[in-house]
């Protein structure tokens, strides 16, 4: 099952890390506890729209940009999940698959290889 809160947390963490900022800096700027922001980034808590707005403001990122990135990752995760369901990977091969591999051939065509079970999609 694809968890939206996990994808959202992953995107928020990457945005923060791209800026070289700490959880403490962003939590202070967004006026949210460090522990809660950490749980949101790890996909353990659902963030309200008000909280997302505060975090986006703290990161100086438009919420529409954040949601677009989450939407793109969700689409990839759904494709990977669909591909895994129709072409299951043998149990003996699963341990060798550490993550989702996305290869573009040309930009409008994407090949996704993923394990048949839980899939974490991480943008490069």
How would you characterize this protein structure?
By secondary structure, the protein is mostly helical. It is 53% helix and 6% strand. It is built from five helices and two strands; from the N terminus they run αααααββ. It has helices spanning 4-18, 23-30, 34-41, 49-59, 63-86, and strands spanning 101-104, 110-113. A hairpin with a 5-residue loop joins strand 1 (101-104) and strand 2 (110-113). Helix 1 crosses helix 5 and helix 2 (23-30) crosses helix 4 (49-59). The longest helix is centred in the middle third of the chain and has 24 residues, at 63-86. The model is unreliable at 103-108 and 114-118 (pLDDT under 50).
Short structural description:
The protein is mainly alpha-helical and 124 residues long.
